[in-house]
Structures are given as C-alpha cells and as structure tokens.
Amino acid sequence: MNQRLCTLITASLLAFGSILPVAAAESATKEKSKSATSDPVAKEINKVDSKAGGDSKSKLIVVPIHGTLPERGVTLTLFGNRSDSLKDYLDLLRRARADKNVEGVVLRFTDLTIGLAAVQELRQAVDDLRAHGKKTTALLETDSQAAYIIASACEEIVMPPSGYLMLHGVKADSYFLKGLLAKLGVRAEVIHIGQYKAAGEMFTEDSFTTPARANMNEMVDDLFDQMTTMVAQSRKMTQEQAVAAINHGPMSPDEATSMGLIDRVAYAEEVYETKEDDGAKIVQMDDYDNANESKSSDLSPFSLLLGLASPSSMTASSGADSKYPQVAVVYATGPIVGGTAEGMLGGDEQIAAEDFIETLEEIRADDKIRAVILRVSSPGGSAFASDLIWRKMEELKKAKPVVVSMGDVAASGGYYIAMGANRVVAQAGTLTGSIGVVGGKADLAGLYEKVGVKKETISRGDYAGLLSETGGFSPKEHDAIERMMRQTYDEFVAKAAAGRNMTPEQMNELAQGKVWTGQRAKDVGLVDALGGMGLAVDETKNLLGMKSDDKVGLVSYPKEVGLMDMLRKAIGKDATMAMNPLTGGASVAALLPEGLASALTTARSAAALLNKERVIMMMPFLPVIR
C-alpha cells in the first residue's frame, strides 16, 4: 500500500467522521454516565453478578496470566482488542481482594516473559489477597521461571502431569556488534562519560570491558539472591535448598513435588472440580471483569465510526469518583525522545517530550488533581528531552506532591526524570541509576567504498566536518564533543544530588554510569523505599496528610486518544510507515532469538538517537528473567 493510497483512506475516514457528531455526542454522554467509578476498589464490583452468576456461592476467579505484560494496555487498534497489561492484572486482583463475594483466585500461568520488578509487583498483589483472607491457587502450565516465582506466593501450586518445571537462574546476555559493523565497512566512534557507562560498547567492543563486566556481575548476583530468597521464603525452605533446586535443572512434576516446589499434580479441570465440590463457583476472568467497562473497547463497525468523531466513545474512561481526593497516575513508558509521538494505531510505547510535557501542564493546571504518581518504566534516551521533562516535573512538584513508582527499569534518562520527586519508590528488582552520558557517530566511509559510493566535500569552518558520516572525529572535534558531554554529565550529577539531598561529590561516586538494582539503590540512597504501586499510593496519601485507609481516586494519564486524533496526526506523515505492521524490520526480528532481537532493537534506538543528537542518556541492556 503506497503513501498516496494510505493518505487517501485516512482523509476519507476523517471526512466520514464529520457526519457523526450528534451520534458521537450522545454516545459520549452515555459513556460518561456509565464510567463514573470509585477508585481503588470501584463501585462496579457489585455489578459483576450480571454474567458471573448471581447465586450465593463464593466465587473463585480464574485469571490467565501470559505474555509480556506492558505497563498499561493499548486500548484502541484497528487490528485487535486491547492487550492485557500489568495494570489490568493489578486492578483486577485489587477488585477481587475487596469483593466480599470472591473467595479467592486461581492464577493460570502460560508462557510469561517479564522482568523481576513486575514479578515482585504481582507477588505483592498475591500477598495482599492472602492477607485479606482470599484463597490463592496457581496452575503452572508453562516452564516460565517468572511464572513460578509469582506462583510460589500462592497457597497452592498445581502442575499438569505432562508439564515440567525449569528453574534456571538469572542470565543477562549482551550482544556486541563491532564485528558485524566491520564486515559492513562501518566503524563506530563512541565517547562515554562514566567508567560504567556501557551503552556504546555494543558498537565498539567484542566483549565486556572490565568495569561493565563488574557492574553486570553485581546485578546478576543481587537478582539471583532476590529470586532464591523469594522462593525460599514462599516455599518454607532454606535459601541453600532453593539454590539446589535451581541447580537441579529441569524436573518432572513428581520431582518438583518431592523437592517441595509444588503441592500436587493435576489438570486444570480436576482443580476446578475439586473447588466446586468444596462449594465454590468457578468464574472466568473475562466474565468477572465485564463490569469493568474500561477493560476493552467496543470495536463494532458503528462504534468504530463513532470513535472518529469522539474519542470518549471509543476510549476507556480515566475518571475517578470526585468525592475522593484525585491523584494523577502518569505512565512514562519506553525510550525518551524529543518532539511528539510517531506512528498510530497501537505503535510502540515511547515518552515523547512535547506530548508528555503537555500532559504535565494539564495536570498542573487541574485544581481537582491533588497529587501525582509518576510510573516510570524507561531505559532513557534523549538527554535534551529528559532535561525538558525534568524541568516540568520540578514545576509540577512546586504545585502538587509528586511520588515516583519505578517499574522494571528506570535508568539513565529514566532516572533523570524521576530523581526530583518528593518520594521515589522502586521494586528490589528494578534496574535504575546509570547516571552517565554517551555520544558519538558512525563512520560510513568503508561502507561507501564497498558499495561504490563516492563523496566529495567542500567546507568552511573548523568544525564543519563534526557531523560528517565519513571519517571519525578529529582531535579537536573529539575534545569539543567530550567537553559538551562532560557539561551534560556534571549537570546530571548536580541535579541528581540536589534531588537526593547529597553533595555532587557523593552523587558522583554513585554515578559513573553504574546500573543499580532497586535493592542496592535503596541501600545507597538513590531511592527512598522498596515496593510497588500500592506503596506509592500510601506515600502519596502521607504527603497529603491522609491516613493509609483513606481512599483516593486514581486518574490515569496520558489520556487515551480517539481514532480521529490519531488519523489527523497521521496525515502529513508517512502513512505507509504508520500503518505497515512490518515497518522497522518486525518480520525479520520475529525470526531472531529473543535476546538478539532485543539487542538489535536497542542498537537501532541508540543509533537513531545519536543520528539526531550527539549526547544521549540510555541504558545498554535489559536483562529478562524467563
């Protein structure tokens, strides 16, 4: 599909959308009247019986957990329903906890690939259920290690006879592209400030440098210790026994039972039958969740067309019951980039500075919003964009209390935008810090020679060739770039020091590009407390002078946009790029090992940023527990 045709289709849809204003307005009014809910627990709990069954039996909710669990689901796409997110699961488990008609939950795990911080967030939700007297059972239908660590928090773990358990420990892979680039005739020249700042080493090295290897080993040691501690505590064994179980290798359900890692072997249907014999009513998550109207969008043709004229008729309400103090929950997810978000219809998540700042200004001006929770899950990106967002966060903090909740990663630029909050909360398994900067460029002269490209340049000025893609930096250019980067690094350290009540000298000892786990970051003062969104809410209440059992209304930002807005945004841009699902080499990436595909994605993001900006704040790797 070429760009002209895509643009024609987009324009036609926009034109057609203009004939539906009345219907859309009526739909929006109805949607608004239906969507008012009281936050954390929500009044809608009592509506669940419409499909989940209205009899007097206590319900056991079957919750299938699988996939990669983005922080926040994308509601509106033309090609499928909303994907389940970490927020969706946490909200559902919180509702189940507060619902007196729910006896407990059955967590049914299939393939799950998430970071340790997300694992810890879900474990805390399970612990919360148990603390409120709810029964918790885990059905393990996958060999996913992340799934097992969450499941171990449940009262009972069940595996089918055909399954197997594989606890393999912690592994962090890093890929080095220097040899590949050399074969292509490309030479990367990278400058970094901070001895541990390894984001550019994938382009310039064949293996870890000594500081990077030391930093990686520290992280893997800490993550492994956290993992074995969680398993040991949940399964009532020593940490040495947990380590021995991991080192045992793959094991059958019977072996896992004998080692105390699971409780029994049975199929899902047998588990349900046993629960029903005990008087419970089995209810699937989708049936229970129907009352939560923000769960999914109506993608019927008529509703889709209504969405052209009114975003509120197609998107989830983010409102909260006005009788409670309102708290904005701002999701900062993905790489940090300048300008506005690219793409449409469910594109990759990113923190686009202009869009994000607009959201922060809207929140600052809204007198109904009493406080802000910034949920950060970002490896960083543009140094310039990070600083612009940091400045707006400082302005926001003068008007309202700000608490940061860190997800799997809040490092480099992701830490930069978080460091000035009133309180910073991270999970023990969060990867954070990485206070350092990277700059450089690629020399394509060898590639041009290989493919027969000739280039001639006529220039004036000592630094005319600074940004040239043929040739490395001259000594004078290298010094100029390094001087600029040093200024950026010193500013990063100074602002981080001010935000964490340290001297610049103290912060510099913790900086140098070093990545910290949340556990170690808490020990050295880079974060204030360990926990998830629940703790962030409690910290916010404390700053507002409220009691821990007082209720607040949580309002999600950025607000979800309607199809009309996305189509308008697409016009004038490359519609083919926006609508083609294969854009960016997705079809090739699907054929690669997961780790290599992730490394190439990181490399592409870093290269794209370096092509636009000479200084970036970006973390080099994202270890995944699988």
Describe this structure in words.
Mean pLDDT is 82; it is low at 1-5, 7-54, 76-80, 291-318 and 572-591. Helix 4 links the parallel strand 1 and strand 2. The strands form four sheets. Strands 8, 11, 13, 14, 15, 17, 18 and 19 form an eight-stranded mixed β-sheet that branches. A six-stranded parallel β-sheet has the order 6-4-3-2-1-7, sandwiched between helices. Strands 5-16-20-12 form a four-stranded antiparallel β-sheet, sandwiched between helices. It has two domains: 3-170 and 218-289, 2-enoyl-CoA Hydratase, Chain A, domain 1 (Alpha-Beta Complex); 317-453 and 464-559 and 580-618, Alpha-Beta Complex (2-enoyl-CoA Hydratase, Chain A, domain 1). Helix 1 crosses helix 14. It has 626 residues and is of the alpha/beta class. The protein is globular, with a radius of gyration of 26 Å. It is built from 26 helices and 20 strands.
List the helices and strands and how they pair.
Blueprint lengths: L2 H15 L3 H15 L13 H4 L6 E9 L18 H13 L3 E11 L3 H16 L3 E6 L4 H7 L4 E4 L18 H7 L2 E7 L7 H4 L5 H25 L4 H10 L4 H6 L5 E2 L2 H10 L3 E4 H5 L11 H9 L16 E8 L2 E2 L13 E2 H13 L3 E10 L1 E3 H17 L2 E10 L1 H4 L6 E4 L4 E3 L3 E7 L1 H7 L23 H25 L4 H7 L4 E3 H7 L4 E2 L2 H11 L9 E5 L5 H8 L4 H5 L6 H4 L4 H19 L2 E4 L8
Parallel strand pairs: 1-2, 1-7, 2-3, 3-4, 4-6, 8-11, 8-19, 9-10, 11-13, 13-14, 13-15, 14-18
Antiparallel strand pairs: 5-16, 12-20, 15-17, 16-20
